[in-house]
Amino acid sequence: MEDRQIMDLFWRRDHGAIPAVQEKYGGSLLHLAERLLNSSQDAEECVNDAYLAVWNGVPNAPPRSLLAYLAKVTRNIALKRLEHNQAQKRGDRFYLLLDELA
User: pTM of the prediction?
Assistant: First the structure.
C-alpha cells in the first residue's frame, strides 16, 4: 500500500491504518527502537506508542515521507523511555550509596 493511501486511512479514522503501517514499516521502526533501547520489549511498546501518537495526532498536511515521520515519532518516544530507564538506574545507585554511608 502506498504512503498516500495509508495517510488517507488515518484521516478517515479507518482502523486498517495501523495494520497497514505495521506491515509496511513495522520492522524498520522496531529495529530503530531496539537499537536505542537494547530491549525488545521496550522497543515494541515504543512502536505501539508511536502508532497511537500518530493515530491521535494525524498531521493536516501529509508528511513528505511517512517513514521519516514515523521514525521521528518512534525515536522521540524511545529516547524518552531511555531517559526514564537511565533515571531509574541512577536513583538505585544513589540509594545504595546512602545505605553504605549509614
Answer: 0.80
